[in-house]
Amino acid sequence: MIPQVLRIALIVLEVVVLFNLLIIVHELGHFLAARWRGLVVEKFGVWFGKPIWKKTINGVQYSLGSIPFGGFVSVPQLAPMDIIEGKVETDRAQLPPISALDKIIVAVAGPLFSLLLALVFACIVWGVGHPVNESDTTTVVGHVPEESPARAAGIQPGDKIIEVDGEPVVRFSGMNNSVVWNVVRSEGDTIPIKVERNGAVLDFNVAPHIAETSGWRRKSVRQVMIFPAQTPIIDQVVADSPAAAAGLTHGDVVRAVNGTPVFHPAAVADFINRNPGQPITLQIDRNGQVLEQTLQPAPIPGEESPRIGVWWDRDGRMAIAHPNPIEQVYKSITATLNTIGAVASPKSDVKLQHLSGPVGIGRIYYLLFQSEGGWQLALWFSVILNVNLAILNMLPIPVLDGGHIVLAIIESIRRKPVNIRILEVVQTACAVLIIGYMAYVSFFDIGDLFGRDSGDAPPARSAPAQPTPAGSP
C-alpha cells in the first residue's frame, strides 16, 4: 500500500505533468507554425523563471525554467509580449516584415493544436471510458428540502424534469442540457420548470434562491434546492457513532427511513433535522439482503446537531460512459460558449469570479486524480480544458491569440503595421489586466480550498457540477 504522503506527491506530479502538457502543446503549435512560415523564433521555453538549462540550436534558444508552470515561444515579428516572455534580444526594427497572413497562421496554430490535443484525449476517453454518476444520467428529482423554493412551487420527489427555463434537459448536472446549468443561467424573476408526474406534464414557476456568501467566497448563483435521484450508499461510518453501534458498514444502501422510501442521502439528514431527538428505523439493503436497524441520532465529533455518523458515497451508482470524440469536443465547445454568453449577459448571475484560474484548475485535477478512475476523469476534463483554452485564446483581446489576429487584419487593411510603441503600450496594459484577473479568480480559488462538507448528507449544489476553467493566454 502506497504511503499517504507518497500518494499525494504522485498526484501532485500527475497534475503538474498534465497541466503543463496542455500549455506546452499550445505553445508548440505557435512554434512550429512560425518555423514553417519562416518567422524569426528567438526562444522556446518550457516553464518560467530563471532557466536551469538552456541551449541555442539553429538560432533558437531552448530553455527549461525553474518554475514548473507552462511555457512560451518568443516571436519578435509578432506584437510584443515582453511582459510575459521577457524582453527580446533582437532589434525588431531590423527584422524583415512579414505578411498579415503569416501572423494569422502563427496565431491560429496555438488554438488549433489545443483542439487537436483535445481530440486526442477524446479518442482515448472514447476507448477507455470515464466514470459517470447518477446525476449525469437522470432528471428525476430525488429529494426536495422543506425550505426549498421548488417545494414551495409544488415540485415533489419522483418528478421527472423535462424542461427548465424553456430548454429541454437530459441530465441533472453538467453544462449541457442540464437542470443545474439551466437554473444557474436563467435570468427571470421566476424559472419555468416542466415536469412529468404519473404520466401527466405539469408546469411550475419557481422563484430561485441565492444564498448569502462572505466577501472572500464566490457569490452564490441561482438554485432551486433540489437533489437528483441518487442511491443512498454509505461510504464510511464514523467511529463510536450511532451508525457504528448499529453495525452499519461501507456499501450499505438505505432504502427507507421509518417506512418512507428515500431516493437521496440528503433525505436521511433532512428527516433527522425535522425530527430532533427521535429514533429512526433504517431499511438497509446489504448485498441483496434487507435489514432493519433502529438508531438514536446523537452529536458526533465535529458536529453540533444530532447525526447518525455516516459519510455518503457522493456519486451513488457509477457507470462507465464511452462518448465518441466528436460528441466530447462539440459539448466542450458549447459549454465554453454558453459560459462566455452567461458571463457577458448583464442579467446573469454568472460572473467572472465564477470561473477558475490556475489554482482552481489544479485543484480540480487533484480532486479528479483522487477519485476512482481518476486518470479517466482527468483525461475527460482535459478535453474540456483544451477546448476552453483554444476558444478563450481566440477572443479578440490584445495579448491573446485573437488579439494578434485582429492586429494582423488591421495591418492588412491599413497596408502598414501598427506603430510598435502603441503596440507595446496596448500589449502591456492588456497583459497587466489579464494577470490582475488571474490574481482575482485565484483569490476565490484559494477560498474554495477552505470549503468543508458537513453533516450526514451533501449540501445542495449551487453551481454547475462541471467546473468551468478560465483558460490562460
Explain what you see:
- Helix 1 runs antiparallel to helix 3, helix 1 crosses helix 9 (358-370) and helix 8 (325-344) crosses helix 10.
- A hairpin with a 2-residue loop joins strand 7 (160-164) and strand 8 (167-168).
- The longest helix has 33 residues, at 4-36.
- The protein is built from twelve helices and 18 strands.
- The protein is α+β, with helices and mostly antiparallel strands and 473 residues long.
- Among the domains are: 1-133 and 321-410, no CATH class; 234-312, Pdz3 Domain (Roll).
- A four-stranded mixed sheet has the order 2-3-1-4. A four-stranded antiparallel sheet has the order 8-7-9-10.
Give the strand content: 15-25%
Q: Using the alpha-carbon principal axes, give the shape.
A: elongated
User: What is the first-to-last residue Cα distance?
Assistant: 40 Å
| Overall pLDDT score | 87
Q: Largest sheet, if any?
A: 4 strands, mixed
Short structural summary:
With 473 residues, the protein is α+β, with helices and mostly antiparallel strands. Helix content is 40%, strand content 18%.
Write the layout of secondary structure elements.
Layout: H1 4-36, E1 43-48, E2 53-57, E3 60-64, E4 67-74, H2 82-85, H3 100-128, E5 130-132, E6 141-143, H4 149-153, E7 160-164, E8 167-168, H5 179-185, E9 191-197, E10 200-206, E11 227-228, E12 234-237, H6 242-245, E13 253-257, E14 260-261, H7 265-274, E15 280-286, E16 289-295, E17 310-312, E18 319-321, H8 325-344, H9 358-370, H10 374-393, H11 401-414, H12 420-448
Parallel strand pairs: 1-3
Antiparallel strand pairs: 1-4, 2-3, 5-18, 6-11, 7-8, 7-9, 9-10, 12-17, 13-14, 13-15, 15-16
Helix pairs in contact: 1-3, 1-9, 1-10, 3-8, 3-10, 3-11, 8-10, 9-10, 9-12
